[in-house]
Amino acid sequence: MNKKAEMMGIKVLSFWMILIWIIVGFGILAGVWIFFSIESDLRLNQAKVISENIGGCLVDNTYLDKDFVKDEFNLFDRCNIDSELNKRYFYINITLADFNSNEKIKEILKGDSDFEIQCYLSDKSKDYARCFTSSYIVYYTNENDEIKKGILTIKSGSNNLGERL
Amino acid sequence: MNKKGSGDNIYAEIIFLILTAIFLIGMFAFVHVKTSGSAYYEQMYSKKIALLIDSSKPETKIALNVKEFEKFEEDVRLEEILDVSNQKVTVKLDSRSDGYVFPIVSTNKVDYQFSESDSGLMLNILILDEDNNEQKS
Description:
The complex is a heterodimer. By secondary structure, chain A is α+β, with helices and mostly antiparallel strands. Chain A has two domains: about 1-40; about 45-160. Chain A has four helices and seven strands; from the N terminus they run ααββαββαβββ. By secondary structure, chain B is of the alpha+beta class. Helices cover about 45% and strands about 25% of the residues of chain B. Chain B contains four helices and six strands; from the N terminus they run H-H-E-H-E-E-E-E-E-H. In chain B, the strands form two sheets. Chain B has a three-stranded antiparallel sheet with strand order 1-6-5, with no helix packed on it. In chain B, strands 2-3-4 form a three-stranded antiparallel sheet. Chain B starts with a helix and ends with a helix. The interface of A and B includes residues 52, 85 and 163 of A. Strand 7 of chain A pairs antiparallel with strand 4 of chain B.
């Protein structure tokens, strides 16, 4: 009778032991997976890098590149950005507006405009692009060579998670 | 009868300890493989190098400690590890894989080379300016 009770005790222990192993195992797997998935998502960092790099390239000591408002101004040559920007991964929207009237002076847009919606909803799904917006109060030269005060807004988006070949 | 019962208990305890040890070793092995394998470093370095290139202006010099590459040198030649071309950074640390690729937006050309230092293998990256771009092409 005692032996039977002991055997049952071992069986009960075995069940709990295996259950605890499964829980611990899933805990470790989940921990490792969450840690590495968070580490590997650099979309917001890349969007920030792109936005700040363009800002640094166009604005010098609050003065906007004097050619910026001209039609022939080429952002991609000026800032060494790929003119064939991969629309699957990247989006750039640069807007210059007059400081007083808020009138839009110039807009440069490259990439898929769907990113605008994705950026707005980025906290709803991890599949949507991550975006970063930087704004600068700048002095720009208009078509009449007058120096005006304006607001330069640079919005960049990245949906680039990288991929294994 | 009691002696036999306690003998069974000892066997059960030993089996329990052995199985627990196997489980723990298995878990450590899983975490070790996940954190020290080539796949992890390929991804980490391709992204790190890509962001460094994207955020650098021409004539910037970058020195990056890549001592982890040393343990993959037997499998992949040093000159095959890194490739920066066509607005993509590719890092390959396993001869059986094609590596990990991370697209970039910068069109700046880059020159890179590996060097030994006291703290291990270093990757020296030079972001070339326009004049150097023209000279290279």
